[in-house]
Write a structure and sequence with these properties.
The protein has two helices and no strands. With 79 residues, the chain is mostly helical. The protein has one domain (8-78). Residues 20-54 form a coiled coil.
Length: 79
């Protein structure tokens, strides 16, 4: 008889547990999606930095060629 009284409560607890598990699974999926997006943003930022470094290096080389110090600076960098 006691079992019959707690059966509805048991059903509610089981349903709540299933819903909580489902919610945790969905939150994990969202977290994975956010991590993927963050990785993509980081990769893009790195690509932009690399591109800017190349531009800066090219501009520095152009300025050195104009000044006539390009070869001298390259030799000094090797030593």
């Amino acid at each position: 008889m006691k079992f019959v009284k707690i059966l509805p409560l048991l059903c509610v607890v089981m349903a709540s547990t299933a819903q909580a598990d489902n919610l945790v699974d969905r939150l994990n999926q969202v977290d994975q999606g956010l991590q993927s997006a963050q990785n993509a943003v980081n990769s893009t930022q790195n690509s932009i930095r690399d591109g800017q470094n190349r531009i800066d290096n090219t501009q520095r080389s152009i300025d050195e060629i104009k000044d006539g110090t390009y070869v001298e600076n390259r030799v000094n960098n090797k030593v």
